[in-house]
């Protein structure tokens, strides 16, 4: 069966055997429950199965690819023909899942934010090993006072420790994307800033970075009804721009925003 990648689903299949081997050996998955998102033609799945996981779960939105995967792996995997953005992962296993994903670049940031915001009372994964467009990966890894720093950096680093594993050239994929990719590994933090809801952080950062080149005074006043005492409390200069505030300052502002709403 000839597989044609669908642009609408952001499909670029990883075919480089060296890269596939690196990904499958990042962590020990023997006797672990594994979730792979967007397995595509099953190239990485084949490598993961060689590592003897206890259970491997595949979520694939493309009907044609799902049929191919079932023909290829039979009962060695559990299959879901679902849209990952609408899927609830926490009931897939009684154990914490190790997650692998060559994420569609057009929805990769939405997927990551969804998973961070799902980390409320219990965390359903122990590691996320994910592929992103290199530019997006740099935004996730960025620290404040950098041009790449933004909502994604702040939300991802709130509850997760993030490290880059490798950069990957376009020729490792079929069809070749026009951009480089980066493989990142995420692990839940044991200690993180407590907020009642991640939605408050999402709203605060979205409001601030909506006009990232302008001073924060206007979005601050919109969120806090011109209450500059909050800015004084944390020594925040309202003449700064959004990228000049640290992770912790955004978490403090999200906390204050929650108090205001209550």
Overall description:
- It is a single chain.
- By secondary structure, the protein is of the alpha/beta class.
- The protein folds into two domains: 182 residues, Rossmann fold (3-Layer(aba) Sandwich); 64 residues, rRNA adenine dimethylase, C-terminal domain (Helicase, Ruva Protein, domain 3), CATH 1.10.8.100.
- The chain contains ten helices and nine strands.
- The strands form two sheets. The chain has a seven-stranded mixed β-sheet.
- Helix 2 links the parallel strand 2 and strand 3.
Q: Runs with pLDDT <50, length 5+? A: none
Summed over residues and divided by their number, the pLDDT gives a mean of 92
CATH C-level class of the largest domain is Alpha Beta
In angstroms, what is the radius of gyration? 20 Å
Roughly how much helix do the residues carry, as a percent range?
A: 25-40%
Largest sheet: 7 strands, mixed
Strands, total number = 9
The gross shape turns out to be: elongated
Number of domains: 2
What is the CATH topology of the largest domain?
Answer: Rossmann fold
N-C termini distance: 57 Å
In what range is the share of β-strand residues?
Answer: 15-25%
Task: Note the total helix count.
Answer: 10
* CATH architecture classification name of the largest domain: 3-Layer(aba) Sandwich
Spatial sequence of strands, sheet with the most strands:
4-3-2-5-6-9-7
- Tell me the structural class: alpha/beta
Superfamily (CATH H level) name of the largest domain:
Vaccinia Virus protein VP39
